[in-house]
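Technical annex, item 7. During the second reporting period the consortium partners agreed on a shared format for inverse folding records so that results from different sites could be compared directly. Each record opens with the tokenized structure and is followed by the designed sequence. A conforming record, contributed by the partner at site C, is shown below for reference.
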């Protein structure tokens, strides 16, 4: 670690250093596989600092996911803002971005899915955040599909969300050579079918 990196790490509040360490380790190795001592070593803080910031590992897991959730919706909002008055292009932008990051060599799957798989017990703090994230995704997709003018925005939103979940899974297992790379085309086909086969005429800006 460079001296600049070390200085930056030691001047960050202990809570943020713990969250950064948890994000790195949990995404890379899974949550159950990582003990508290490993997080402490990566963050460079003592156990007393951990328990001042978080009452338990479960609370740390929930905080890690809540931070990931906030970053995700910031990214989502910025993506939607590129073409705020063109719902169909927004769908294309969303799934094009999804295809790109699910086929990156360093992609380790969706942290919300991964957490829900690791923690099946109802009411686990991490699972609660993961489920809330997926429900919010459906709500946003339904709003987007409503602006497309489909007869059944709820149904199309469910289909698109299933497609997204499949891309996360395929990207995690098969990488850039798998079907996640084709998720944009699949989403376009779903939208076109929902619109009764009406193709969007692309302007030169989008061509």
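Designed sequence (site C submission):
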């Amino acid at each position: 670690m460079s001296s600049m990196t070390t200085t930056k790490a030691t001047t960050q509040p202990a809570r943020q250093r713990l969250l950064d360490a948890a994000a790195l380790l949990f995404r890379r190795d899974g949550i159950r596989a990582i003990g508290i001592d490993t997080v402490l070593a990566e963050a460079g803080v003592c156990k007393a600092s951990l328990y001042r910031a978080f009452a338990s590992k479960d609370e740390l897991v929930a905080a890690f996911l809540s931070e990931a959730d906030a970053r995700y919706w910031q990214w989502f909002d910025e993506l939607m803002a590129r073409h705020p008055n063109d719902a169909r292009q927004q769908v294309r932008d969303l799934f094009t971005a999804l295809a790109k990051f699910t086929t990156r060599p360093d992609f380790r799957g969706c942290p919300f899915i991964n957490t829900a798989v690791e923690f099946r017990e109802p009411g686990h703090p991490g699972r609660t955040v993961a489920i809330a994230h997926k429900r919010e995704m459906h709500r946003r997709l339904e709003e987007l599909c409503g602006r497309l003018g489909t007869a059944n925005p709820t149904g199309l939103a469910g289909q698109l969300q299933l497609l997204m979940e499949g891309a996360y899974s395929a990207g995690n297992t098969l990488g850039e050579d798998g079907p996640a790379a084709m998720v944009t085309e699949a989403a376009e086909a779903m939208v076109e079918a929902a619109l009764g086969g009406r193709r969007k005429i692309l302007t030169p800006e989008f061509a």
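The chain has ten helices and no strands. Residues 2 and 61 are 28 Å apart (CA to CA). All partners now use this format for quarterly exchanges.
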